[in-house]
Amino acid sequence: MTYKTIIIGTGPAGLTSAIYLARANMEPLVIEGWQPGGQLTTTTEVENFPGFPEGILGSELMSNMRKQAQKFGATFKTGSVKSVDFSKRPYTLEVEGLGRLQADSVIISTGASAKYLNIPGEQDNIGRGVSTCATCDGFFFRGKKIIVVGGGDSAMEEAVFLTRFASEVRLVHRREELRASKIMQDRARANDKIVWSLNRTPVEVVATGMGLQGLKVINNESGEEELLETDGLFVTIGHTPNTGFLGGQIQLDEQGYIIVKPGTSETNIPGVFACGDVQDRQYRQAITAAGSGCMAALDCERYLEAQEHAAATV
Ligand code: NAP
Q1: What is the number of other CB atoms lying within 10 angstroms of the CB of residue 246?
Q2: Run means of pLDDT, 10 residues per run, the chain, 314 residues
Q3: Running DSSP on this structure, what letter comes out for residue 123?
Q4: Which of 215, 235, 255 is the last residue of a domain?
Q5: Ligand 1 atom 19: the closest Cα is on which residue?
Q6: Is the CB of 122 under 6 A from ligand 1?
Q7: Could you say which of 47, 120, 216, 224 has the lowest number of CB atoms within 10 Å?
């Protein structure tokens, strides 16, 4: 069997494209990984997704989107795409758990994974004081102390943003020099609420049952261990787009994000579209991912119609 469209990934981008395609009777197959729902399922309350004035749990929002796609006829199967063959149509996907699948078009919405420090105490406290998204979780730290880890533009941006809520934001970076652009550094340095712990390597997140106590770091100059007290820890050390399975068949930028034709979801392969964080290193919001999922569905629909029309006129 050849599917009209296979959507890979079930974050807001993939699920929105599934809702649109299913509603257009395109009967998409959605492949969800072993941890469906994307990054939103690792956060708690989402307060900035339009339409939910009281906020909504990330997992509930994703579950609602999934139900909405199913209601219109999208099919979901669980598996992990290991490789693709986009050299000829129909396109082939090798999926662990499902075998070889074929489709006339493919939407890639596999997202990007926030990098973690991988130190003791970090994973146990995700959603309990440890976060990778200031826009999502900053609001919960009104009047509290926050640590931001990282030395890049994201860390500067998130630290400045978090000063709107926090009483103090401590920037912890493993080197003396920052990687961030000068303008972003200057902005952070000009903010009196930001204090700096440079040349410190994080080694442990310390928590009590009541919340975070602090971040244990090694002072790289003295070699001594220090406990930096905090209520919240934002790990801002970059993202990894989930594009490894594409095996070089889709054009990526130097950081591994899929390159789409500006203003569209089109990749360099006709009939293969990308949406959400896998092609967006700038905005990375649930709502922007959902919007780009809608674009991918509409682009895909137009592509399939054009193919059908071409086949009918041969
Ligand atoms: P990034 O530039 O790769 O910076 C990551 C930072 O995290 C680096 O300072 C790195 O330290 C540190 N880091 C990495 N692994 C670590 C570990 N295991 N332990 C401790 N620290 C670690 O990532 P980004 O800041 O997310 O930026 C990604 C891209 O988006 C960049 O091109 C950036 O310019 C762009 N961006 C632009 C804006 C803007 O212009 N408004 C905002 C955000 C992002 P080292 O420096 O020691 O390697």
Answers
A1: 25
A2: 96 97 97 80 76 92 96 96 97 96 98 94 94 89 97 93 96 97 96 98 94 97 97 95 96 97 98 97 91 98 94 82
A3: G
A4: 235
A5: 117
A6: no
A7: 224
Answer yes or no: do 255 and 271 share one domain.
yes
- CA 272 to centroid of ligand 1, rounded, Å: 29
Catalytic, 300? Answer no
What is the Cα–Cα distance from 233 to 237, expressed in whole angstroms?
12
Statement to judge: residues 107 and 127 lie in one domain: no
Q: Catalytic site residue 294?
A: no
Nearest Cα residue to atom 9 of ligand 1: 151
Active site residue 136: yes
Containing domain of residue 138, as a range? 116-235
Residue closest via CA to ligand 1's atom 37 equals 153
End-to-end CA distance of the chain: 23
Three-state DSSP class for 156?
A: helix
Question: Which of these three, 235, 254, 283, is where a domain ends?
Answer: 235
Overall number of domains in the chain: 2
- Tell me the C-alpha distance between 188 and 171, whole Å: 9
